[in-house]
User: Which sequence fits this backbone?
């Protein structure tokens, strides 16, 4: 069993590190040649996951065809606005043997599509296949550190969800299954918008009452939108919903909370973005949610 | 989507962050779960 992780940002890198540690030969596709060279020399990715040496089971690739060859399960962890273009590059090299799991938490700008919808759309000429989405409270750095983490993998095909569950679970990463991929993807995307609001409140030193109110009414908004779009209410009280919302609104490692916090402190969005190497998905998702609401 | 709308206003319309909480707090009063319970629920 080989796996491929497409996207060498912090989450993709941490997930590949996890897969390698549990003994799955893993190919990590990255766009940046300089990261591949660094990995070849030192076994590290100091730009997106500093401080960790990858196990020997992980290999870095720049060539997408070579990365996908012989891999049964493909985890896609690229930012939502690049998801379609990257996946379109992957598609010619995919066949029915490849299982696809989205690790991306976002909604495509313009089309307002979830990542699994993009997968289905791009792969439609090749025949429909089950897709899964993995989400939940999981800061990349803590997964890389081996801290106990629980996530949910959702697919309309329960056999697919269970396959991924058993493939990636270990004593550090506990994976639950769900049939509600729509809800899991929506929750994972919209919570980033609420996290920006929570960051705003923290930046304004609004206090703990305000934060609790924003989080509680935030999950209410997420649930209401989800129900309107065909998701299940219970998904929003689960790991992808309230679980990830708690983490993102209260954790110091959240990029989206950071954006809100800095805005609340008076910095401009342009200044904040220019100082970040990683993408805060909530900025783009805010546009999509505004169009959906 | 009042919270998401406020974030949109700050990010894309230049709304001062300091106005977000006061605008949220001055919205019309509602029941907590009314809008999840259907159109006949008490507002």
Assistant:
């Amino acid at each position: 069993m080989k796996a491929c992780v497409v996207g060498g940002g912090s989450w993709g890198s941490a997930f590949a590190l996890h897969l390698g540690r549990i003994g799955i030969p893993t190919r990590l596709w990255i766009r940046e040649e300089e990261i591949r060279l660094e990995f070849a020399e030192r076994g590290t990715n100091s730009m997106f996951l500093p401080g960790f040496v990858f196990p020997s089971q992980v290999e870095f690739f720049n060539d997408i065809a070579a990365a996908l060859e012989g891999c049964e399960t493909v985890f896609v962890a690229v930012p939502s606005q690049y998801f379609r273009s990257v996946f379109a590059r992957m598609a010619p090299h995919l066949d029915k043997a490849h299982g696809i799991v989205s690790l991306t938490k976002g909604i495509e700008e313009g089309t307002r599509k979830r990542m699994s919808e993009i997968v289905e759309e791009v792969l439609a000429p090749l025949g429909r296949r089950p897709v899964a989405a993995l989400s939940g409270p999981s800061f990349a750095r803590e997964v890389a550190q081996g801290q106990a983490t629980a996530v949910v993998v959702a697919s309309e095909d329960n056999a697919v969800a269970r396959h991924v569950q058993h493939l990636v679970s270990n004593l550090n990463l506990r994976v639950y299954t769900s049939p509600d991929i729509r809800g899991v993807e929506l929750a994972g995307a919209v919570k980033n918008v609420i996290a920006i609001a929570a960051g705003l409140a923290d930046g304004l030193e609004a206090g703990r009452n305000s934060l609790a109110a924003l989080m509680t009414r935030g999950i209410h908004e997420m649930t209401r939108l989800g129900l309107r779009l065909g998701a299940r209410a219970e998904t929003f009280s689960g790991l992808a919903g309230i679980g990830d919302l708690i983490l993102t609104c209260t954790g110091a490692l959240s990029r989206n909370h950071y954006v809100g916090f800095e805005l609340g402190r008076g910095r401009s969005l342009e200044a904040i973005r220019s100082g970040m190497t990683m993408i805060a998905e909530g900025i783009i998702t805010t546009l999509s949610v505004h169009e959906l609401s | 989507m009042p919270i998401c709308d406020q974030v949109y206003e700050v990010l894309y319309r230049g709304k001062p962050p300091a106005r977000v909480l006061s605008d949220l707090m001055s919205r019309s009063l509602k029941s907590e779960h009314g809008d999840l319970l259907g159109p006949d629920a008490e507002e």
